[in-house]
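User: Hey, quick favor. My workstation is busy. Could you predict this chain's structure for me?
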Amino acid sequence: MPVPNDNALVGGRELIGNPKLLAAIDFDRSQETASGLFQARLERPAGVPLAYGVFQPQVFDGPVEGVRETWLGLRRVPALTGGPAPLDEYVRTEVEVRAEEMWRGTGAPAFTGYSALDPLHQIPVVEPVEAVLGINMTLTPVGMESVSAHRGK
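Assistant: No problem, here it is.
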């Protein structure tokens, strides 16, 4: 999952096992089109476009506070030279979702194929999907548990 800052990178990857990459994410609500469509751009590094997305809001859910979701992530602790084998641990995390505004609608991604180092373009886009837009959204872990762990070779 691309994120725009170090806090989101470390918090998501190290705490709950959701892999993250730093990226420049441009989403400007002031550029809404006359038809109500919003667009976003993902660049990694800044200036190298990897993906574009269009979002069409259809349902306004209002402000959201205290909604909880459960995620499953893989936390990987690499092996150190001469130390124990790497550790892979599945972590179930309950997160609390808050947002000033929450919208549901249709999203349509498109990948540029510009960077072989970030091969997002290899993910096929089959059809538009249901998408969610959270304005000033935060996700706060409220509970975590190890589901399973094992040492690799």
